[in-house]
Request: fold
Amino acid sequence: MGITFTEQTMSVKDLNDLTYIDYFDRLKLLSMSMFEWSGLPDSISKRFLEKTLFQQGKAVFCDASKRGLGLLCLPGTVSGQLNVYGEPINMMVHGVNFTENYTLDECVLIKNNYLLKPTIYTIQLYAQRLYEVERSIDTNIKGQKFPRLIKGSERQQLTLKNIYNQYDGNAPVIYIDTSLNKDAFTVLNTETPYVADKLLQYKHDLWNECLSFLGINNANTDKKERLITDEVESNNQQIQLSADIMLMCRKEAALEINEMFGLNVSVEIRGNQDNIIDSFSSESQGGTNE
Reply:
């Protein structure tokens, strides 16, 4: 999003923002890489098609030859009345320096799902949850430094600082003046319970849950050896159904495109899905450190 951070200038807010953006972008890239389109004309961007479905829940495949642009696939909004099934009859198609009205006899509406809902809303929710747990892990780990609060008079502060500097410098022996009254100051222990391991497992579960929503095989690989066959099959069916929800709408649109424009467009779930998620999932096990 055009934001640059450096170690010297990164505030807590900067790190919060960067963590959320990082998770959102990784999940967005996974969402946009799920499907592989074939047979699309050169005038249509596969990346922009999937980006439009991700962000707006629908895209319009249309012929802009009269504008000298050929076949296009752009965002569209419902224009005018609906038919008896509540489906749009007309679409207002828009792009950069392009706006045109089409009837559904002239164009094809590509749906992200049967509700025409964009994927971005769910991805934002998961990115928010992952950001929250990631920063909680960072905070908990920082708390393991067990800082001490030393309470004393203003006159004693310099002496106390010098004593602590020796302690922090691993001095084997610390010498103090006999005039130092040990009862005049108090050391408060701010020990923090270690829960980062539990938070890390929760983050891992969130990541897998989001992959399952997208229809990306994750199968909770760390638990496979403890799952019975029925549980594995049930999990796989859920993942497959999640993928099919979006794939069916794209396949239906591809058939309509071929019939209307005489093309040979097809779409499938990307075959090397496991390879796609390797880099993302491995990164999700680590984190953004302060």
